[in-house]
Write a structure and sequence with these properties.
Layout (H helix, E strand, L loop, with lengths): L2 E5 L5 E4 L1 H6 L13 H4 L3 H11 L5 E9 L2 E14 L2 E10 L1 H38 L4 H32 L8 E3 L1 H18 L3 E3 L9 E3 L1 H17 L6 E9 L2 E8 L33 H11 L3 E7 L3 E9 L4 H4 L1
Parallel strand pairs: 7-9
Antiparallel strand pairs: 1-2, 1-5, 3-4, 4-5, 6-8, 9-10, 10-12, 11-12
This protein binds adenosine-5'-diphosphate.
Length: 337
């Protein structure tokens, strides 16, 4: 991956490794030995840097952009002068910055997303608060109504922040998890404790076939509970009153799948990949009540990947959605059961 070029005291190529050829967009088979660098690589900044290093201006460090086919590749270059056999030579190191730039871009985008998501409820709170100030004397009923709006926006802010913290933890990776045998039956039971009242209030029927006979999975109990709760919560949320949500497990080779199915609004095919992105929501207008944050499924995805598992979704819009999380069977499952 790391490109290395050694140049003579007169800037001719002495040695060049395959990574350097690739980064400088040079044909891999051409014989470059003894050719002046400036002749084969037409990147003025790089040639200036080699001249400067040779002239004794110290180590040269620079970021350059090298066209490569359709794309422009960001490359970090470093040129050092050193003495060998009574003569000066140059050593040039080249590093592909594409990945580093992508990470930086994702970080920037994440922060922009967070700011946007936090600004919306905050702006609403500000607007309602100003209205309450005006209305509180002459129209207490209206003031009361706006106070309720403020309260609900505060709840939304609270949920957003809690979700973002959970996501940050989910992204912290394997070192944060306590891995061991986990019973999916226990996890489902625990999760349903909090969702039974929600389902009852919406008159949604929860069907939970027993799954004690399946092996335990190799996972973290807390993380598995978060996964199950997000999927069950979504299933109830995106299923209209009177619908059905089914939660069960099935064996899948070296995995056990946690399956959450509903007969709600479903997800169009074109959106099925994107719903796992942070803050992504299918048409905000579909939301009922206090809107979602678009973070739940990215937490599910992050945790599942960290646990060495896989998430699958299938859905027909209008007929419902089915989410499956496959987690590896516990190593000592055979001893346990
Ligand atoms: P949200 O907080 O919006 O629920 P999620 O990340 O959990 O965020 O989900 C992202 C989007 O995926 C949701 O906004 C919703 O449009 C869609 N979605 C998730 N689960 C379901 C489901 N069971 N049925 C229909 N749509 C769903």
């Amino acid at each position: 991956r790391y490109g290395v070029v050694m140049l003579s005291g007169t800037s001719e190529i002495v040695l060049i490794n395959p990574a350097a050829r690739r980064l400088l967009s040079l044909a891999s088979e051409s014989d470059l030995h003894g050719r002046p660098l400036a002749e084969v690589v037409r990147i003025p900044e790089l040639n200036q840097a080699t001249s400067a290093a040779l002239a004794g201006d110290g180590t040269q460090k620079l970021h350059i952009e090298i066209p490569s086919g359709e794309v422009v590749r960001p490359v970090y270059a470093r040129v050092d002068r050193f003495m060998a056999g009574g003569e000066y030579s140059l050593l040039m190191g080249l590093r592909d910055e594409t990945d580093a730039q992508r990470v930086e871009e994702m970080r920037r985008e994440f922060i922009a997303n967070i700011s946007h998501e936090l600004k919306t409820p905050l702006a609403a709170i500000k607007g309602y608060a100003e209205t309450v100030e005006l209305a509180i004397k002459d129209d207490p009923d209206a003031a009361f109504h706006f106070m309720q709006q403020i309260h609900s926006q505060c709840l939304r802010l609270e949920k957003l922040i809690a979700d973002m913290m959970q996501l940050a933890r989910a992204q912290a990776g394997i070192s944060q998890l306590k891995l061991g045998p986990v019973s999916l039956a226990d996890v489902i039971e625990e999760s349903l404790k909090s969702y039974h009242p929600v389902a009852d209030a919406k008159q949604i029927q929860l069907i939970v076939p027993p799954c004690e006979d399946l092996p335990k999975v190799h996972a973290d109990a807390e993380a598995t509970l978060i996964i199950a709760s997000n999927l069950i919560g979504n299933a109830i949320h995106y299923t209209p009153q009177g619908g059905v949500v089914r939660v069960h497990c099935r064996s899948a080779g070296k995995f056990v799948a946690l399956v959450v199915e509903d007969n709600g609004v479903g997800i169009p095919k074109s959106e099925q990949k994107r719903i796992f992105e942070r803050f992504y929501r299918v048409e905000k207008s579909r939301d009922t009540g206090v809107g979602g944050t678009g973070i739940g499924l990215s937490i599910v995805k992050n945790l599942t990947m960290t646990l060495g598992g896989e998430v699958r979704v299938s859905s027909k819009p209008g007929e419902g959605a089915k989410f499956e999380v496959l987690l590896p069977v516990s190593r000592d499952a055979l001893n346990v059961r």
